[in-house]
Design goal:
The protein is 24% helix and 22% strand. It is built from seven helices and 13 strands. It has helices at 5-8, 42-55, 128-133, 135-145, 173-179, 200-210, 233-239, and strands at 13-17, 63-64, 74-76, 91-94, 100-105, 109-115, 120-126, 154-157, 167-168, 187-189, 196-198, 215-218, 247-253.
């Protein structure tokens, strides 16, 4: 698993960006696949999630994930829910200790956030669609409602697809540039004429910094290119594979 120093330095907060290594799943899902929505053997996914929580010294029952749908929907979490009751949302916030907020990704950017003083944490699933729709802004607003201050919040952007792997079509940049002309810097020309390479990590980082965050950290990884370490939706699509695993990023207030 991967951790970031400034998040580690916050007393009473545990976090991790898990790689695909160290689990029991096989084949396309090898090995630490934590995605309940994948086609993996459910018992294997449950074991993998329990192993991840063991690394955080927390109960597997405390891990909470949503039915992610690339939205800007945020949920304030007060207690765990059953899988069948999982809300359709892409971010969670809480000030309750012992609850593990989990985000599942396979190229999208996982974002973990914490305010030491307010003892408020958040976790967001930020693909391009959700980030453009405002999931980052919605998560920060929900944290502020619980007493957090953007100037105190530390944010960590976990492993996601890198710019050199993220080719997009000629129509893709328009909504980003329409929102802010400065977003043109997020795109460079692709080797394929008329297409572009998009920097998702920087797009998410810019939105965080634009909300007044002074501490925005990034894991310098490319999920699409680093096959031994990470799952990747795009890599699976390029290969014509039928499915793919999901990596887990998690944050919790110590009980």
């Amino acid at each position: 698993m991967i951790t970031l120093g400034p998040l580690n330095d916050i007393d009473g907060v545990r976090h991790a960006f898990f790689t695909r290594e160290g689990g029991v799943s096989e084949g396309l899902f090898a090995s630490l696949n934590c995605g309940l929505g994948s086609g993996d053997v459910p018992d294997n996914v449950a074991t993998n999630r329990a192993r991840a929580m063991n690394h955080l010294d927390l109960s597997s029952d405390s891990l909470i994930t949503c039915y992610q749908m690339h939205s800007a929907n945020v949920v304030e979490v007060e207690r765990p829910w059953r899988r069948e009751d999982a809300p359709r949302a892409d971010a969670m916030v809480t000030r309750n200790a012992g609850l593990v907020l989990g985000v599942l990704t396979a190229d999208c950017a996982p974002v973990l956030l914490a305010d030491r003083q307010a003892r408020v944490i958040g976790a967001a699933h930020a693909g391009w669609r959700g980030a453009l729709a405002g999931v980052i802004e919605a998560t920060l607003a929900a944290m502020v409602r619980l007493g957090a201050d953007p100037k105190r919040i530390v944010a960590g952007i976990g492993p996601c697809i890198g710019q050199r792997s993220y080719e997009v079509g000629p129509e893709f940049p328009a909504p980003f540039i329409d929102e802010d002309p400065a977003n043109a810097a997020l795109f460079v020309a692709s080797p394929n004429s008329g297409r572009f390479m998009f920097d998702l990590r920087e797009f998410v980082a810019r939105r965080l910094r634009g909300l007044g965050l002074r501490h925005v950290l990034e894991v310098p990884a490319d999920t699409c290119r680093e096959e031994q370490r990470f799952f990747s939706y795009r890599r699976a699509c390029l290969r014509g594979e039928r499915d793919y695993g999901r990596g887990l990023s998690a944050i919790a207030l110590e009980p």
